[in-house]
Every structure is written in C-alpha cells, then in structure tokens.
Specification:
3-stranded antiparallel beta sheet; Immunoglobulin-like; mainly beta; 4-stranded antiparallel beta sheet; 7 strands
C-alpha cells in the first residue's frame, strides 16, 4: 500500500533543495512528490492548499537510504517561480515496492 506524508515548509522562493527523512523510503524506492501553495490559518489545523498565480514544481527527486546513506528519505528540489517567497506544502508518496526491473 502506498504511503504519503504531508510536509508544510516555510516561505520559499526560487530553486530550493529540500530533504525529508522518512524510514519508509529506501535508496531504491519509487517516490512521487507534489507541491502547492498553502494558506496559513489559525489554528494551524486549518491550512489548505490552493492554486495561485505562481508556478510551483517538484523536481530532481532522489530517494536515499542504506547502504549508500545511513538516513532513509528523499532529497528533491521545489521551484517557486514568483517574485516573493510563498508558503509551500508537499505531499511525499512512496510506492509499495522497488522497480520490478532495472534497465541499463
């Protein structure tokens, strides 16, 4: 069963490398990432995602874990194409199994 974790990030602008350590991810995991702007609300359980005028993308997704890295997780880039910093939320999804075949 795929698993997803949602992470709220502080204001970001431009190309920003990010990392999320999560024991569900290994070096050969298949990881998908979505990114969007979110509305900051009080109390903090009322945040919600929305589509604004900015282009926001998740790129360069690189899962990591043993034996190459002691930390399980994923490093990726969020690119926020907007003149001022925006609050960004990502959903990080790890699929069930590693690839069934690796082609070279």
């Amino acid at each position: 069963m795929p698993q997803t974790v949602r992470k709220f990030w502080g204001p970001l602008k431009g190309r920003t490398p990010l990392n999320m350590n999560w024991n569900a991810i290994n070096h050969d995991s298949v990881v998908l990432i979505t990114a969007a702007e979110y509305f900051v609300a009080a109390p903090s359980t009322n945040e919600h995602r929305f589509i604004g005028g900015a282009t926001i993308t998740g790129e360069n997704i690189a899962p990591h874990g043993p034996p190459f890295d002691p930390n399980h997780g994923v490093t990726f880039v969020v690119n926020v194409d907007w003149p001022s910093p925006l609050t960004i939320v990502t959903d990080i999804t790890v699929l069930d199994n590693p690839p069934v075949q690796i082609l070279t």
